[in-house]
Backbone:
Protein backbone atom coordinates (compact mmCIF):
# COMPACT_ATOMS: atom_id res chain seq x y z
CA UNK A 1 0.00 0.00 0.00
CA UNK A 2 1.37 3.47 -0.88
CA UNK A 3 2.70 5.55 2.01
CA UNK A 4 2.47 9.27 2.81
CA UNK A 5 -0.64 9.76 0.70
CA UNK A 6 -1.22 13.51 0.74
CA UNK A 7 -4.56 15.12 -0.13
CA UNK A 8 -5.02 18.90 -0.51
CA UNK A 9 -7.68 20.63 1.57
CA UNK A 10 -10.25 23.03 0.16
CA UNK A 11 -9.67 25.76 2.76
CA UNK A 12 -5.90 26.04 2.21
CA UNK A 13 -4.93 29.64 1.47
CA UNK A 14 -1.89 31.87 1.12
CA UNK A 15 -1.96 32.34 4.90
CA UNK A 16 -2.70 28.80 6.05
CA UNK A 17 -1.66 25.62 4.24
CA UNK A 18 -3.41 22.38 5.17
CA UNK A 19 -2.94 18.79 4.07
CA UNK A 20 -4.16 15.37 5.15
CA UNK A 21 -1.74 12.44 5.17
CA UNK A 22 -2.67 8.78 5.46
CA UNK A 23 -0.57 5.62 5.91
CA UNK A 24 2.29 7.80 7.14
CA UNK A 25 5.82 6.38 7.30
CA UNK A 26 9.11 8.28 7.81
CA UNK A 27 7.54 11.57 6.78
CA UNK A 28 9.86 14.55 7.30
CA UNK A 29 8.41 17.77 8.69
CA UNK A 30 10.76 20.63 7.83
CA UNK A 31 8.56 23.66 8.44
CA UNK A 32 7.03 24.60 11.79
CA UNK A 33 3.65 22.87 11.55
CA UNK A 34 0.68 21.94 13.69
CA UNK A 35 0.32 18.17 13.49
CA UNK A 36 -2.98 16.56 14.53
CA UNK A 37 -3.12 12.79 15.02
CA UNK A 38 -6.44 11.69 13.50
CA UNK A 39 -5.59 8.02 13.77
CA UNK A 40 -6.64 5.60 16.50
CA UNK A 41 -3.06 4.66 17.42
CA UNK A 42 -0.07 6.67 18.58
CA UNK A 43 1.79 8.67 15.92
CA UNK A 44 5.48 8.03 16.61
CA UNK A 45 7.94 10.89 16.14
CA UNK A 46 11.75 10.93 15.89
CA UNK A 47 13.39 12.54 18.90
CA UNK A 48 15.76 11.57 21.69
CA UNK A 49 14.14 9.62 23.20
CA UNK A 50 11.35 8.80 20.75
CA UNK A 51 8.01 10.41 21.51
CA UNK A 52 4.49 10.24 20.13
CA UNK A 53 1.16 11.99 19.69
CA UNK A 54 -1.85 10.27 21.22
CA UNK A 55 -5.01 9.86 19.11
CA UNK A 56 -7.04 13.08 18.83
CA UNK A 57 -4.12 15.15 20.10
CA UNK A 58 -1.75 17.63 18.46
CA UNK A 59 1.51 19.53 18.77
CA UNK A 60 3.70 22.03 16.93
CA UNK A 61 6.60 20.20 15.26
CA UNK A 62 9.62 21.13 13.16
CA UNK A 63 12.70 19.25 11.87
CA UNK A 64 11.40 15.83 12.90
CA UNK A 65 9.97 12.83 11.10
CA UNK A 66 6.76 10.97 11.75
CA UNK A 67 7.96 7.38 11.94
CA UNK A 68 4.54 5.80 11.66
CA UNK A 69 0.93 6.97 11.83
CA UNK A 70 -2.43 5.99 10.39
CA UNK A 71 -3.63 9.50 9.65
CA UNK A 72 -2.36 13.00 10.45
CA UNK A 73 -3.47 16.51 9.54
CA UNK A 74 -0.81 19.17 8.90
CA UNK A 75 -1.39 22.92 9.21
CA UNK A 76 1.25 25.55 8.50
CA UNK A 77 0.68 29.26 9.10
CA UNK A 78 2.73 30.96 6.37
CA UNK A 79 1.73 34.61 6.68
CA UNK A 80 0.19 36.26 9.76
CA UNK A 81 0.02 39.72 8.15
CA UNK A 82 -3.65 40.63 7.77
CA UNK A 83 -4.53 37.02 8.57
CA UNK A 84 -8.10 38.04 9.38
CA UNK A 85 -8.64 38.64 5.67
CA UNK A 86 -8.92 34.86 5.37
CA UNK A 87 -12.69 35.33 5.72
CA UNK A 88 -12.63 37.04 2.30
CA UNK A 89 -11.43 33.82 0.65
CA UNK A 90 -13.81 31.90 -1.57
CA UNK A 91 -16.67 30.10 0.17
CA UNK A 92 -16.06 31.56 3.63
CA UNK A 93 -19.34 32.70 5.20
CA UNK A 94 -20.65 34.39 8.28
CA UNK A 95 -22.43 31.55 10.11
CA UNK A 96 -25.69 33.48 9.81
CA UNK A 97 -25.52 33.00 6.04
CA UNK A 98 -25.49 29.22 6.47
CA UNK A 99 -27.88 28.56 9.37
CA UNK A 100 -30.17 30.50 11.68
CA UNK A 101 -27.59 32.34 13.79
CA UNK A 102 -27.36 35.88 15.25
CA UNK A 103 -25.79 38.27 12.74
CA UNK A 104 -24.36 40.37 15.58
CA UNK A 105 -22.02 37.53 16.64
CA UNK A 106 -18.89 37.85 14.45
CA UNK A 107 -18.26 34.19 13.59
CA UNK A 108 -17.12 32.99 10.15
CA UNK A 109 -16.71 29.45 8.77
CA UNK A 110 -14.56 28.13 5.95
CA UNK A 111 -15.68 25.49 3.44
CA UNK A 112 -16.05 22.08 5.07
CA UNK A 113 -13.88 19.26 3.76
CA UNK A 114 -14.68 15.54 4.01
CA UNK A 115 -11.61 13.42 4.71
CA UNK A 116 -12.99 9.89 4.73
CA UNK A 117 -14.39 7.11 6.90
CA UNK A 118 -12.92 5.92 10.21
CA UNK A 119 -14.12 3.20 12.55
CA UNK A 120 -13.91 3.33 16.35
CA UNK A 121 -15.64 2.50 19.60
CA UNK A 122 -17.31 5.75 20.70
CA UNK A 123 -17.21 4.70 24.35
CA UNK A 124 -13.39 4.53 24.24
CA UNK A 125 -12.95 7.79 22.32
CA UNK A 126 -15.14 9.69 24.80
CA UNK A 127 -13.36 8.15 27.79
CA UNK A 128 -16.37 6.19 29.02
CA UNK A 129 -14.54 2.87 28.58
CA UNK A 130 -10.89 1.84 28.60
CA UNK A 131 -11.29 -1.22 26.38
CA UNK A 132 -12.51 -1.54 22.81
CA UNK A 133 -15.57 -3.69 22.29
CA UNK A 134 -15.99 -5.03 18.74
CA UNK A 135 -19.77 -4.94 19.20
CA UNK A 136 -19.64 -1.17 19.71
CA UNK A 137 -17.54 -0.30 16.65
CA UNK A 138 -19.15 2.24 14.35
CA UNK A 139 -18.09 4.03 11.20
CA UNK A 140 -17.85 7.82 11.05
CA UNK A 141 -17.33 10.35 8.27
CA UNK A 142 -14.57 12.82 9.22
CA UNK A 143 -15.19 16.46 8.30
CA UNK A 144 -12.94 19.48 8.96
CA UNK A 145 -13.31 23.23 8.63
CA UNK A 146 -11.78 26.43 9.96
CA UNK A 147 -13.48 29.08 12.10
CA UNK A 148 -12.56 32.73 12.61
CA UNK A 149 -13.70 35.16 15.32
CA UNK A 150 -12.22 38.48 16.52
CA UNK A 151 -11.11 39.10 20.09
CA UNK A 152 -13.70 38.95 22.87
CA UNK A 153 -16.19 36.93 20.83
CA UNK A 154 -18.56 34.55 22.62
CA UNK A 155 -19.54 32.12 19.88
CA UNK A 156 -22.96 31.18 21.37
CA UNK A 157 -23.75 28.66 24.12
CA UNK A 158 -25.27 25.43 22.80
CA UNK A 159 -25.50 21.73 23.66
CA UNK A 160 -26.58 20.26 20.33
CA UNK A 161 -25.31 20.46 16.75
CA UNK A 162 -27.39 17.95 14.78
CA UNK A 163 -29.69 14.94 15.17
CA UNK A 164 -28.09 12.53 15.66
CA UNK A 165 -25.23 14.59 17.01
CA UNK A 166 -21.63 14.19 15.89
CA UNK A 167 -18.42 14.01 17.91
CA UNK A 168 -16.23 17.10 17.66
CA UNK A 169 -12.89 18.38 18.86
CA UNK A 170 -11.14 21.67 18.06
CA UNK A 171 -7.52 22.50 17.28
CA UNK A 172 -6.28 26.04 17.91
CA UNK A 173 -4.46 27.49 14.89
CA UNK A 174 -3.94 31.21 15.62
CA UNK A 175 -4.47 33.38 18.69
CA UNK A 176 -5.59 32.25 22.12
CA UNK A 177 -9.10 31.06 22.87
CA UNK A 178 -10.95 28.58 25.04
CA UNK A 179 -13.76 26.06 25.15
CA UNK A 180 -16.14 26.83 27.98
CA UNK A 181 -18.67 24.58 29.75
CA UNK A 182 -21.83 25.75 31.53
CA UNK A 183 -24.46 24.20 33.77
CA UNK A 184 -27.24 25.90 31.77
CA UNK A 185 -27.60 28.14 28.73
CA UNK A 186 -26.46 31.08 30.84
CA UNK A 187 -22.94 32.53 30.81
CA UNK A 188 -23.13 33.05 34.59
CA UNK A 189 -23.16 29.25 35.08
CA UNK A 190 -19.65 28.71 33.69
CA UNK A 191 -17.93 25.80 35.45
CA UNK A 192 -14.92 24.93 33.25
CA UNK A 193 -12.49 26.78 30.98
CA UNK A 194 -10.35 24.71 28.58
CA UNK A 195 -7.62 27.14 27.50
CA UNK A 196 -6.34 26.72 23.95
CA UNK A 197 -3.01 27.98 22.61
CA UNK A 198 -1.88 27.47 19.00
CA UNK A 199 -1.17 23.79 18.40
CA UNK A 200 -3.48 22.47 21.12
CA UNK A 201 -6.48 20.17 20.65
CA UNK A 202 -8.96 19.73 23.48
CA UNK A 203 -10.22 16.30 24.51
CA UNK A 204 -13.72 15.24 23.37
CA UNK A 205 -16.42 16.82 25.54
CA UNK A 206 -19.27 14.49 24.60
CA UNK A 207 -20.57 11.46 26.48
CA UNK A 208 -22.82 8.63 25.25
CA UNK A 209 -26.48 8.47 26.32
CA UNK A 210 -28.67 5.38 26.76
CA UNK A 211 -29.57 5.52 23.05
CA UNK A 212 -25.84 5.35 22.18
CA UNK A 213 -25.83 8.91 20.85
CA UNK A 214 -23.35 11.69 21.60
CA UNK A 215 -24.58 14.19 24.19
CA UNK A 216 -22.92 17.46 25.17
CA UNK A 217 -22.84 19.84 28.11
CA UNK A 218 -23.79 23.44 27.41
CA UNK A 219 -20.64 24.85 25.85
CA UNK A 220 -19.20 27.51 23.59
CA UNK A 221 -15.95 28.70 22.04
CA UNK A 222 -14.63 32.02 23.37
CA UNK A 223 -11.96 34.04 21.53
CA UNK A 224 -9.63 35.90 23.91
CA UNK A 225 -7.75 37.25 20.87
CA UNK A 226 -8.38 37.26 17.13
CA UNK A 227 -8.62 33.50 16.63
CA UNK A 228 -8.58 30.84 13.95
CA UNK A 229 -9.31 27.28 14.99
CA UNK A 230 -10.19 24.03 13.27
CA UNK A 231 -13.24 21.89 13.96
CA UNK A 232 -12.83 18.14 13.48
CA UNK A 233 -16.19 16.38 13.28
CA UNK A 234 -17.02 12.68 13.27
CA UNK A 235 -20.48 12.06 11.75
CA UNK A 236 -22.15 8.67 11.99
CA UNK A 237 -21.89 7.12 8.51
CA UNK A 238 -25.15 5.99 6.96
Residues:
Amino acid sequence: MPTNIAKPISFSSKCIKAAWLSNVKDYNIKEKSIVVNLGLDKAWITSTPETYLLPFSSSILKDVSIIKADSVFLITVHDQNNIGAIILDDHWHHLGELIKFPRDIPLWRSPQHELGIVEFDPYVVTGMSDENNPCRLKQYQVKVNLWYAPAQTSAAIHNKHADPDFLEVHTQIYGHGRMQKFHTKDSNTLYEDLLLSPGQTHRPMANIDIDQKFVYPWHQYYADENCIWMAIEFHLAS
